Amino acid sequence: QVQLVESGGGLVQAGGSLRLSCAASGSIFSIMGWYRQAPGKQRELVATITFGGSTNYQDSVKGRFTISRDNAKSTVYLQMNSLKPEDTAAYYCYARSFSRDYWGQGTQVTVSS
Fold first, then answer.
1. Model pLDDT for residues 21-62, shown as the tens digit of each residue
2. pLDDT digits (tens, 9 = 90+) for 91-105
3. Can you say whether the dihedral through the CA atoms of 74, 27, 23, 18 is positive or negative?
């Protein structure tokens, strides 16, 4: 059974940093990443990383966020720096395994101005 367990959300002032972690279990994951959803908005991609380390970022977070993964631990990280109020959202861990998509329960990130 696949499980994704997120941690690391919280409240931070604008300009601050947070690090999200997501530990996955139950399979091998070709792609892992993070999506976010703000109130009243659609869920959007933040960043993804393949098993081989290739990354993809939403334009608005490039240069501020860094995604990484530890394949031995099946864990993906999102280092978020220079946070802005518009980064406030629920952040969801994502993982793909054998053409199936899996989601974490979400962790709230709130950036105060």
1. 999 999 999 999 999 999 999 999 999 999 999 999 999 999
2. 999 999 999 999 999
3. positive
Buried/exposed code over 58-96 (b: 16+ C-beta within 10 A; e: otherwise): eeebeeebbbebeeeebbbbbebeebeeebbbbbbbbbb
Please say whether the beta carbons of 97 and 27 come within 8 A: yes
Q: What is the pLDDT of residue 112?
A: 97
Q: What is the DSSP string of the chain?
A: --EEEEE--EEEETT--EEEEEEEESS--SEEEEEEE-TTS--EEEEEEETT--EEE-GGGTTTEEEEEETTTTEEEEEE-S--GGG-EEEEEEEEETTEEEE---EEEEEE-
Q: Please give the Cα distance from 22 to 11 (Å, whole number).
A: 18
